[in-house]
Automatic annotation (TrEMBL):
Keywords: DNA-binding, Transcription, Transcription regulation, Two-component regulatory system
Protein name: Transcriptional regulatory protein EmbR
Pfam families in UniProt: BTAD, Trans_reg_C
InterPro entries: AfsR-DnrI-RedD_regulator, BTAD, OmpR/PhoB-type_DNA-bd, Sig_transdc_resp-reg_C-effctor, TPR-like_helical_dom_sf, WH-like_DNA-bd_sf
Feature: DNA-binding region: 1-99
Gene this protein is translated from: embR6
Similarity annotation: Belongs to the AfsR/DnrI/RedD regulatory family.
Residue ranges annotated for the OmpR/PhoB-type domain, each copy included: 1-99
PANTHER family, sorted: TRANSCRIPTIONAL REGULATOR REDD (PTHR35807:SF1), TRANSCRIPTIONAL REGULATOR REDD-RELATED (PTHR35807)
Length: 280
């Protein structure tokens, strides 16, 4: 693939394996607003709202066109036989970044996670797909971009990443080294200290590794954080797991179950999520 776009971490264009300067923040925001819908037309009004918000300046349309012209010329200075250009096509009422969605890291991430959720697959195949998807993660999506739309994208993809990591941990804890899985989950919980699905997966891994006492300490710490920061108590699933560990009973089956609805959202503190429309 000659051209790739990275939206996890700073917005970046990668041409023949080398990162290119995508321009100032506003141009990177235009590129991201197109890339999240790569292969599909995006109305001009939607692009303007994504870049400038609900109250855009008077010259937003002219600025949008100028940025698109510069984006089209990215990579022209290299000898790529014309394949280094970013094909932004004019469509009725809008523009379309005419790239394979797999050329955009977060779009590929979503496809791999969806494949991992197809029923009937062997657990090792599911785990391999999830590892591949998580390896695409470079950091906070759209890093450095301001505004309501980038913030929504970041939150949606934060939840997607957590969801994939928890699912992978559940697969690996039954087929690998629970202690190693627990360490990975500790790191993830440090990033998301009030996310119950991560704490639940960590407690499960610790118990399976033979460290029920540490699993109980993890619960106590999370309960304290939820009370202090959110004024909330742990959810039913976490309380039930805590009860079973106290009684010395093994956790019931898999902790992670894919969402029944592909478009459902859940409580932000659980970190569990089905599909999000990235461009929402």
């Amino acid at each position: 693939m000659v051209v790739r776009l990275c939206l996890s971490g700073p917005v970046e264009v990668v041409l023949r394996g080398r990162a290119m300067d995508a321009g100032p923040p506003q141009r990177r925001a235009v590129l991201a607003a197109l890339a999240v819908d790569a292969g599909r037309p995006v109305p001009v009004e939607a692009l303007i709202e994504r870049v400038w918000g609900a109250d855009p300046p008077e010259g937003a349309r002219r600025a949008l066109y100028a940025h698109i012209c510069r984006i089209r010329r990215l990579g022209e200075e290299r000898d790529t036989g014309g394949r280094g250009r970013l094909p932004v096509l004019r469509r009725p009422g809008g523009y379309q970044l005419d790239l394979d969605p797999d050329a955009v890291d977060l779009r590929r991430f979503r496809r791999l996670v969806a494949l991992a959720r197809v029923s009937g697959q062997p657990r090792d195949r599911q785990a391999a797909l999830l590892r591949e998807s998580l390896a695409l993660w470079r950091g906070e999506p759209l890093a450095g971009l301001r505004g309501a739309w980038p913030a929504r994208v970041r939150e949606a993809w934060r939840r997607r990443r957590v969801d994939a990591a928890v699912r992978l941990a559940d697969l690996e804890v039954h087929s690998g080294d629970p202690a190693a899985v627990a360490q990975q989950l500790r790191d993830l919980l440090d990033e998301h200290p009030t996310t119950e699905s991560v704490a639940e997966a960590l407690m499960h891994a610790l118990y399976m590794a033979g460290d029920g006492a540490e699993a109980l300490r993890c619960y106590a710490q999370l309960r304290h954080r939820l009370a202090e920061e959110l004024g909330a108590e742990p959810g039913h699933g976490l309380r039930e797991l805590h009860r079973r560990i106290l009684l010395g009973r093994p956790p019931r089956g898999a902790l992670y179950m894919p969402s029944a609805s592909a478009d459902s959202d859940t409580d932000a503190r659980t970190g569990s999520v089905g599909q999000f429309l990235l461009a929402d």
